[in-house]
Write a structure and sequence with these properties.
By secondary structure, this protein is α/β, with parallel strands linked by helices. Helices cover 35% and strands 23% of the residues.
Length: 257
């Protein structure tokens, strides 16, 4: 597996727009300068280039989705002999600790990474990808309300296909869209989780880092779990394409034990 990591959208775009020494020049120029295919990429080429860092229409659509209601605090009650805000009479009569107290429980790590696989099939719509962004936002909001700092990565997991129908070494690219200290940039999230992030930028990246690729270029693949942190949250290819599936995904996460 070839793994590439970029700390920002800017760094990834720079790599995608630069041809390596092993890439065919004609192949790279074809993918860099090819004509519009909005039905395939999801946006006209001019708009893909215009909205590299932020997609405002996606932000507007995202804001029309339901607000995310989060659990504000996680507390447990316990009994104490010396300090408390109330008394349990039955426990006092029986000679047990009877002062009722409570404490916050922190069973989550200080930081957590969220990986979103944007490698999807050719017919994926922007609305489907927007639901993946919605799911990611719900996870971020929930965790950071509980005091966990989050980082989010737009991930490309694919298998290049060569002109002789031979499948190449699996390719994995992760691009940081939000680091632990950052607030969420909705515009960046809405362009980094999109059909064109894979079908334009990832294809251009593959064309610039391989040679003699087939027209189809590559197949989407599952995230390489061996390359991810153990406590990572992943939204895979094929997941969270509808609001119902996104909410089901959230409800089934074990965020607090």
């Amino acid at each position: 597996m070839k793994k590439y990591h970029y700390n920002s959208l800017t760094a990834f775009y720079s790599a995608a727009e630069t041809r390596s020494n092993i890439s065919d020049k004609a192949q790279f120029e074809h993918y860099r300068d090819r004509e519009d295919n909005e039905d395939f990429t999801g946006l006209p080429r001019a708009e893909i280039l215009k909205y590299k860092m932020s997609y405002p229409l996606g932000v507007e659509k995202l804001r029309h989705l339901d607000d995310f209601k989060v659990e504000k605090e996680t507390k447990v009650q316990f009994y104490d002999s010396f300090d408390g805000y109330d008394i349990d009479i039955d426990r006092m009569i029986n000679g047990l600790d009877f002062l009722i107290n409570e404490k916050k429980v922190r069973k989550l790590p200080k930081t957590m990474d969220i990986f979103i696989n944007v490698a999807e099939g050719a017919r994926i719509s922007y609305e489907s990808m927007l639901n993946k962004a919605y799911a990611a936002l719900k996870v971020i909001d929930h965790l950071e309300t509980l005091g966990v700092r989050t980082a989010i990565f737009s991930c490309i997991s694919a298998i290049p296909l060569y002109a002789n129908n031979r499948k190449g070494t699996p390719l994995y690219v992760e691009v940081a869209v939000k680091n632990y200290a950052d607030s969420v940039n909705l515009g960046a999230l809405c362009t980094a989780i999109s059909p064109w992030f894979f079908r334009h930028w990832a294809f251009l990246f593959m064309a610039g880092h391989n040679k003699k690729l087939a027209t189809g270029l590559g197949y989407s693949a599952k995230l390489p779990f061996e390359a991810l942190p153990k406590n990572a949250i992943t939204i895979e290819t094929g997941e969270c394409h509808t609001r119902t599936r996104a909410n089901f995904f959230i409800q089934n996460l074990k965020l607090v034990s």
